[in-house]
């Protein structure tokens, strides 16, 4: 490959010697000055008139550096550089200048696109019906191909297009239910939208590829969300540090511990000047400083009028204790009940430490970390039997002979009278139910804490006053368990999750097909229906072939690692086991991700802090056998 000559050298014009032969130095100087004045005058005139000088009109970027790159730099150097970037970067470069577009859109550059694509982690291979730039465009250009809406993350992979929810219904008509699963979740559950003729045309290979692309896109969007969240956290921390210099940090921390803290949201963090995915600069701080301080001043005045003054030192100690105890809970094995934060804050031992510890003996976060490691085991040994007995007394109102071991049974179903819908609650989930940790009651009352209640309103000792035993659901579960050839007197809730029986709801059968579900989803209106739980014989394999695999759609942290108790999303389990515990699970490549996770139950357990109604690796589905002997989902 020949080396290119510099554009500057190629275009340089040499002045003939004959033109300068009769010029004196004075003539040259006067001529040069006159020419400079003329050029300067023209440039100023063009600038004043709002027009760009002619020599700069086609220049892009800083002095057209990209254009110089494309014209001056050898191709082999350009190709070497491009091997280290992504297809998204190549797309942007191809649109930056005609020369770069000519290079990148040529057939000889295909290997560059392929190498750039291989730089992207977990990206599915390029489909045969798209070339490299087309595939990159589909993956990275987030606009609707119908209405050109600038932000569209809904990709119809089967049609190789992006289509926003507003355009989907005007663009497509009747959809096939199997291909529906390749659509975004917002569209998928409204109605069937893919014609049967596309199923015949594209086949299952394109369907599988589309699902792989959708999983990659969801992970990419989730990664971008995490990246923006990190920027917001850094911005908030930078603002807090600035407020510390002006004396307003304490007020901001009081607002951050307001009644919305249990949702990880508060009025300060949600403020439009704070919640920005934008790094805080000196100029940025000076532009928002006055508005933020006025907001904090208004909040402080309102707080003092309603609650009276708080001691900032005492408030900080309550905050530190709650923070350290929540850190302990995040690493604790929650399969047995743990005290609520309110039980710890209201405990006399820690209450005295908060109020009576001299300032010079208080070591900040380390103080309560050390005190919790010293006193928490004895507090748990005292608290746990008492609260288990309290829950047992609730059950004995329906079963007087109930014992502690009966709390673990799958037939022991509680519900909360405060919750809409009265959803099922099992042991030990009942000890982490929000309503049980936020109720105001007479026990463990500490008058010194009253001025701080508005800052920590959802920090209360655990109570069972809203919990009742549901005898009707208990009897219905007994029938289900017996139908599965298990003993309802000994079968625990964990046994049922391990068995994970396939259940047909005969009452929900319709022209659309037979309804099938799993144990955790029975409470969704099926518990009082006619159920069939026995083996389905030769039909079993055909039925299971249409059961949707939803494991990669779970972003909520519904699992807990059995090794470190960290909360995990379902799709993150195997990577976590490998990265943090060097545990390599032998997975069946032919089986679904849900099946592999079910087979690895020794390494995880359901997160008891969440409602069990969300604890399912699979959704309910319909199965229909048509007249020719084939089956349809």
TrEMBL record:
Skewed-composition ranges (Basic and acidic residues): 8-25
Q: Specify where the region named Disordered lies, as residue ranges.
A: 1-49
Q: Kindly give the PROSITE patterns that the UniProt entry links to this protein.
A: FBOX
- List the InterPro entries hit by this protein, alphabetically: F-box-like_dom_sf, F-box_dom
Which part of the chain is the F-box domain?
67-116
State what protein this is by name. Answer: F-box domain-containing protein
Q: What taxonomic lineage is listed for the species of origin?
A: Eukaryota, Fungi, Dikarya, Basidiomycota, Agaricomycotina
């Amino acid at each position: 490959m020949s080396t290119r000559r510099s554009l500057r050298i190629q275009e340089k014009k040499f002045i003939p010697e004959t033109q300068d032969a009769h010029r004196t130095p004075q003539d040259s100087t006067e001529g040069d000055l006159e020419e400079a004045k003329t050029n300067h005058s023209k440039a100023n005139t063009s600038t004043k008139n709002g027009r760009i000088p002619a020599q700069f009109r086609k220049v892009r970027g800083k002095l057209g550096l990209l254009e110089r790159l494309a014209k001056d730099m050898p191709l082999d150097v350009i190709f070497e550089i491009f091997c280290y970037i992504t297809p998204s970067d190549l797309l942007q470069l191809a649109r930056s200048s005609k020369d770069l577009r000519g290079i990148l859109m040529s057939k000889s550059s295909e290997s560059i696109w392929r190498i750039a694509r291989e730089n992207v982690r977990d990206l599915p291979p390029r489909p045969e019906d798209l070339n490299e730039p087309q595939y990159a465009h589909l993956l990275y250009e987030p606009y609707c191909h119908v209405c050109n809406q600038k932000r569209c993350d809904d990709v119809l992979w089967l049609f190789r297009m992006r289509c926003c929810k507003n355009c989907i219904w005007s663009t497509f008509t009747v959809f096939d239910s199997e291909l529906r699963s390749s659509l975004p979740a917002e569209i998928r559950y409204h109605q069937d939208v893919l014609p049967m003729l596309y199923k015949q045309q594209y086949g299952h290979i394109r369907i599988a590829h589309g699902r792989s692309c959708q999983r990659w896109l969801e992970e990419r969007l989730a990664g971008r969300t995490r990246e923006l969240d990190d920027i917001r956290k850094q911005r908030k921390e930078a603002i807090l540090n600035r407020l510390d210099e002006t004396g307003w940090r304490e007020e901001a921390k009081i607002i951050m511990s307001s009644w919305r803290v249990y949702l990880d949201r508060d009025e300060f963090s949600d403020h439009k000047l704070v919640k920005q995915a934008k790094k805080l600069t000196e100029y940025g701080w000076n532009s928002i400083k006055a508005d933020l301080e006025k907001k904090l001043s208004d909040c402080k005045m309102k707080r003092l009028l309603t609650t009276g003054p708080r001691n900032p030192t005492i408030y900080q100690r309550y905050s530190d204790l709650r923070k350290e105890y929540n850190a302990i809970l995040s690493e604790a094995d929650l399969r047995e009940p743990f005290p609520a934060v309110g039980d710890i804050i209201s405990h006399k031992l820690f209450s005295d430490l908060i109020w009576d510890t001299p300032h010079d003996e208080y070591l900040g976060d380390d103080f309560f970390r050390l005190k919790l490691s010293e006193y928490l085991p004895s507090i748990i040994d005292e608290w746990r039997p008492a609260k288990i007995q309290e829950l047992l007394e609730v059950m004995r109102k329906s079963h007087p002979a109930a014992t502690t071991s009966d709390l673990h049974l799958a037939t022991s179903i509680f519900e909360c009278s405060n919750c809409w819908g009265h959803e099922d609650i099992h042991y030990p989930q009942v000890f982490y139910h929000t309503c049980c940790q936020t109720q105001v009651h007479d026990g463990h009352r500490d008058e010194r804490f009253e001025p701080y209640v508005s800052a920590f309103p959802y920090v209360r000792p655990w109570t069972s006053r809203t919990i009742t035993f549901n005898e009707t659901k208990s009897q219905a579960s007994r029938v289900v368990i017996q139908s599965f050839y298990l003993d309802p007197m000994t079968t625990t809730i964990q046994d049922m999750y391990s068995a994970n029986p396939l259940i047909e709801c005969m009452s929900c059968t319709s022209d659309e097909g037979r309804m099938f579900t799993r144990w955790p989803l029975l409470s969704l209106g099926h518990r009082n229906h006619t159920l069939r739980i026995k083996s389905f014989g030769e039909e079993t394999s055909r039925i299971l072939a249409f059961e949707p695999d939803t494991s990669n759609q779970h972003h909520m942290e519904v699992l807990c690692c059995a090794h470190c108790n960290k909360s995990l999303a379902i799709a993150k389990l195997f990577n976590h086991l490998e990265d943090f515990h060097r545990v390599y699970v032998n997975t069946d490549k032919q089986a679904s991700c849900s099946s592999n996770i079910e087979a690895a139950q020794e390494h995880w357990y359901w997160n008891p802090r969440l409602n069990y109604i969300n604890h399912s690796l699979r959704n309910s589905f319909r199965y229909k056998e048509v007249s020719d002997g084939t089956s349809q989902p």
